[in-house]
Write a structure and sequence with these properties.
Belongs to the sulfotransferase 1 family. This protein has helices at residues 2-35, 40-44, 80-88, 109-120, 143-147, 151-161, 173-189, 203-210, 221-238, 249-254, 257-265, 292-299; strands at residues 68-74, 93-95, 136-138, 140-142, 163-169, 244-248. By secondary structure, the protein is an alpha/beta fold.
């Protein structure tokens, strides 16, 4: 009887301790989800590692080094170029640019899969390629480059191959609109000594490009903002079953821990990342929109009014 009573007491004690530990873990996980851009899918799924065997070169002694696969899913003029240069400043990361900007690579799902296989097999060569000893391989993919139209097959590929998705969006789509229009204008105007540049590396170049003030269509503005939001929401819905994180351009600028969290998400050594790119449109939006009064009048009193004064 004494032994039986002792066993019961020990059992109750162990159960109480386990319940307390589970409660603490649940609370900590909930806190992490709320305070970081990493959502529940990045916490639930473990990063899969790979040992690719490229056909175009020999990884030699790095053949035993594991590689993670990722893709940056974004929209034009959302900071993806700058974000990619930050990642590529890490000596273990190779992000290979906007590879699906070429139509032939996305003309059908077969060409998309063939392109993806080349990238993740380390047989895709760009200036960012580190090849032999890369620990994370990826590229950036715009939502309007066949990604949403072929989402079912792409999601299946991501889950089958263990590709992690990094969603990069802007909280302020009005600023993105200014950047899109200004960049489109410069394709033809070539304001920098007859050369078009989507990204610049000096304050002088940034100032020269920012002098152009686009005219925004105030009639379709609210509809255009809604379309941007709908595209982002649709992408998140389609890729909900993948391992992914959501990162905002504004957080990359203002929150020093965001880049650390991205590196932790990719399971690579955390380092200080840097970029030579310089922001083009700085300061108040009123300084960058030619028909500012019309835009201000259109958005005042709507749910998009906050974009008029939000920085970055």
């Amino acid at each position: 009887m004494i032994v039986l009573v002792f066993a019961m007491v020990c059992g109750l004690y162990i159960c109480a301790v386990c319940l307390k530990q589970l409660s603490n873990v649940s609370f900590q996980t909930s806190q992490l989800v709320q305070t970081s851009p990493i959502d529940s899918h990045s916490l639930r799924f473990v990063t899969r590692i790979h040992y690719p065997k490229p056909q175009t070169f020999n990884r030699a002694e790095c053949g035993h080094n594991p590689v993670r696969y990722f893709a940056i899913l974004s929209m034009q003029r959302s900071g993806s170029g700058w974000f990619e240069t930050l990642l590529n400043s890490h000596n273990n990361v190779s992000s290979n640019g906007e590879i699906f900007s070429v139509l032939d690579r996305r003309k059908n799902i077969s060409s998309i899969i063939q392109t993806l296989d080349r990238v993740y097999n380390l047989d895709w060569f760009t200036s960012a390629s580190k090849n032999e000893c890369s620990a994370a391989i990826g590229f950036k993919w715009m939502l309007n480059q066949g990604l949403l139209e072929n989402h079912k097959d792409i999601v299946e590929y991501f889950n089958r191959r263990g590709v992690s998705a990094i969603f990069l969006f802007r909280r302020n789509p009005l600023r993105r609109m200014v950047s899109v229009l200004a960049n489109s204008y410069d394709r033809y105007a070539k304001l920098l000594n007859g050369t078009h540049k989507s990204h610049v590396h000096s304050p002088a170049e940034a100032d020269a490009l920012s002098r152009y003030k686009p005219v925004i269509n105030s009639t379709s503005l609210i509809h255009d903002l809604q379309e941007t939001e709908n595209s982002a929401a649709k992408a998140l819905e389609y890729f909900n079953t993948t391992r992914h994180i959501v990162v905002f351009y504004e957080d990359l600028i203002t929150n020093q821990t965001t880049l650390k969290q991205v590196q932790e998400f990719l399971n690579i050594p955390v380092k200080d990342l840097s970029s030579r790119q310089v922001k083009i449109h700085r300061g108040d939006l009123s300084d960058h929109i030619k028909n500012w009064e019309d835009i201000n009048k259109t958005l005042n009193g709507t749910e998009y009014e906050k974009f008029l004064r939000a920085d970055y």
